[in-house]
Amino acid sequence: MSHRYLQSMLTMLLVGFLPITAFAVEETKPAETFQSICLKSWMERANEAEDKVDFQNFGEKYCDCAATQQPLTTNEDVAKAAKVCMSRILLQDSMDNLTDELELSDVTEADVNEYCLDRWKLIYPSMDDKIKKTSEDYCSCAKPKLLELIKKMDSKTDKQFAAEINEVAANCSGQVGK
């Protein structure tokens, strides 16, 4: 499968599903914030999720991230924000869950992969083969980088750790698409 095909697939997945497109084209009431519009749109798919609380928490993080991606005035702006934020929140959420539930010294490649794929399943509970392949490629890309980061975690501040997760996310969302 060509890298260009994977890039278009990842972009299509992110843009096709993501709620921030509603913000770019929909007239809103002055009292509504970007986050409220984004989250409302996100939650329209909550009935598909197995864990609605996790789904909402993920959506809140996603919408908070998307709100920081300025400007959001064109479809291209929205697509870029969607790709950046979905990738970041997927890995941040995966790592948060992993570090909360496991001893870092015991984390294996399989654990990292499982937690990454778990986040994909949260937002895409009914994956077709194309989405499943994209998620597997993305998590395979992130896995060795996250394991290396976990080894160095004690020497990093929370801010540095988050920034490095974002770097891995950017690298892997770009790699899956090439």
What structural keywords apply?
178 residues; mainly alpha; 8 helices; disordered N terminus
Blueprint of the fold:
Elements: H1 3-17, H2 20-25, H3 34-43, H4 52-68, H5 75-101, H6 109-123, H7 129-151, H8 158-176
Helix pairs in contact: 1-5, 1-8, 3-4, 4-5, 5-6, 5-8, 6-7, 7-8
Describe the structure.
This protein has helices at residues 3-17, 20-25, 34-43, 52-68, 75-101, 109-123, 129-151, 158-176. By secondary structure, it is mainly alpha-helical. The chain has one domain (3-176). Helix 4 (52-68) crosses helix 5 and helix 7 packs antiparallel against helix 8. The termini are close together.
Q: What's the short version?
A:
With 178 residues, this protein is mostly helical.
Question: What structural class should be given to the helix and strand makeup?
Answer: mainly alpha
Q: Helical stretch count?
A: 8
Shape: globular
Secondary structure tally: strands: 0
- How far apart the termini lie comes to 10 Å
Give the H and E element order: HHHHHHHH
Radius of gyration, Cα only, in angstroms? 16 Å
Number of domains: 1
Strand content: under 5%
Helix % is: over 70%
Q: How many strands, what sense, and barrel or not for the largest sheet?
A: none
Outline the low-pLDDT stretches. Answer: 1-6, 12-16, 21-25
Give the overall average pLDDT.
85
